[in-house]
Write a structure and sequence with these properties.
Strand content: 25-35%
Number of helices: 8
CATH architecture of the largest domain: 3-Layer(bab) Sandwich
Number of strands: 24
Shape: globular
Number of domains: 2
Structural class: alpha+beta
Largest sheet: 19 strands, mixed
Amino acid sequence: MSEGRIDYLAAKFFQQACTPAEKEELARWIEQSDGDAALQQVLERVWADYEPVAQLTEEASSRIIGDILDRQHTVSVGAAVRPLHKLLRYAAAAVIFVAALAGGYALWKSGPAAPSAPAVVKAAKPEILPPGGNKATLTMADGSVITLDSTLNSTVITGNQVRIVKTDSGLVTYQQLGIQDAKPAYNTLTVPRGGQFRVVLADGTKVWLNAMSSLHYPVAFSNGARKVELSGEAYFEVAASSARPFLVTVNDMELTVLGTAFNVSAYPDEAFVHATLLSGKVVVKHHEVSLPLAKGCQAALNRRTGQLTNTPVNTDEAVAWKNGRFIFNAAPMKEIMRQLSRWYNIDVAYAGEVNEQFYAEIPRFANAAEALKILELTGKVHFRLEGQRVTVYP
């Protein structure tokens, strides 16, 4: 296919003007292309001449994804998967293009063709089982609980040498007004299943909390060490202070930080606690073992054996959730479903063992049915979606 023809089809796709035959032609080119670089070049050329993002409404995005994932127009593809990590950086329309078209048609590119099978996922309207959103509860030092939803935008709470402001963007900001008393007051921010939230602590440290996570922290900081406790998963951008180290306690592991960006994943139902360093310096301590982390490395604590290891990793995968994506790289199905269940607030059951490993990128703004359909196109797994319950079939 000529370069001009490819650009023409890609532009028509963004305009939602492709005929079924043109969509299949474009999908087949992606399936047969030399690799991720070829698709990236197409996106760059088309994006230079076409700018649809400002007009791309949420409703239009849903229509695009729903149209692309219509199995009437899918093509037969192989069983192996090609992750497209770099391509999801081209703004909203490119995200939809790559995650839905490339993800749905051509992520499974090499190897023998998977046998065709009827779709098991029940049809779902976009509003059914939507993705998670900004939701949390704030437990104050006196035990009172505040539900942080859209009805509490611009709320201001003052006390304990701090001013707390809740905005409409899923964010709570603490503004320290004075030195904390000898006996500090603590708040707890709790994010439920199907939620996410952000908080700026009194020292300026920024924290992103993933679904089913909580952070326990002082409302204002004294002159000593800054110490918080985490359950679940969070991404931190710590305000630098050489005189006041920032300490994160999670289970029986502690991280000492002096101004750093890092991610910690410590869900109770996971076998490992992971701490991934994106920039700066972190020392991870477990009992008597101290492990300095370098940029781009991940500490993994085996909950069963207590062993602490240090390994270079792809940091994009560790913080994909914060950046609006799921990235699965040789991930087992049960790990994938644990992540999806937290974000979509669904219960998962298994009708057999699925022993394959999966590679995929899925946008977190897709609804649950769309996410499951993308995984189904591997031919290695099928799902039945009934209300809040998903059954996994080999």
